[in-house]
Write a structure and sequence with these properties.
The protein is mostly helical. It is 78% helix and 0% strand. It is globular and about 55 Å long.
Length: 172
């Protein structure tokens, strides 16, 4: 790939990552501020629960990743992937139901933005083979993700067969 096309691609990837990150961070920050204001109006000044403090910390890391995306692609990409993992752990521990859907709404955009920034950083290193590496990695990850998600949904919905030994039977 010529250097000019490589530069065009990296600029587009950076801008896409910045827009995704900024939109999701503003959305999450608005939710956090709205929740804090509603609790303040209904209960007055109370101590912040550990779940809320952890979300604020994750939001600060996400905001730092968004701000740093203008200067440091690698560091901001790592921060956004850490934010996605932190949201996944938070959702897994504190959320009630539909963990995959909640993470897909809140955490997946950070993972996509972080991945775009890390790919843009690698492409800016003028390595021609990185496109092939990214395609190979995508071909390996997407089927695994689809298999694990479909397996999760089959288990959570239960099976309609009449076999008592079926491993997908929902235990009540």
């Amino acid at each position: 790939m010529p250097a000019r096309e490589n530069n065009y691609l990296t600029r587009r990837m950076r801008w896409a990552a910045r827009v995704i990150c900024l939109v999701v961070t503003v959305f999450g920050g608005t939710m956090l501020i709205g929740e804090a204001v509603s609790e303040l109006l209904s209960q007055g000044f109370v101590t912040i629960p550990s779940e809320g403090a952890l979300l604020v910390l994750i939001g600060i890391v996400a905001l730092a990743g968004c701000v740093l995306s203008w200067w440091r692609d690698r560091l901001s990409g790592i921060l956004l992937v850490v934010t996605s993992a932190g949201l996944g752990a938070h959702i897994g521990i504190f959320a009630g139901h539909n963990h995959v859907m909640a993470w897909a709404i809140l955490g997946l955009p950070y993972l996509v933005a972080g991945g775009l920034l890390l790919c843009a950083w690698r492409l800016s290193r003028h390595k021609e083979y990185i496109i092939l590496q990214a395609l190979t990695l995508t071909r390996a990850i997407i089927p695994f993700f689809l298999f694990s998600v479909s397996k999760y949904f089959v288990r959570s919905m239960g099976c309609s067969c009449n076999d008592t030994q079926c491993k997908y039977k929902k235990v009540r």
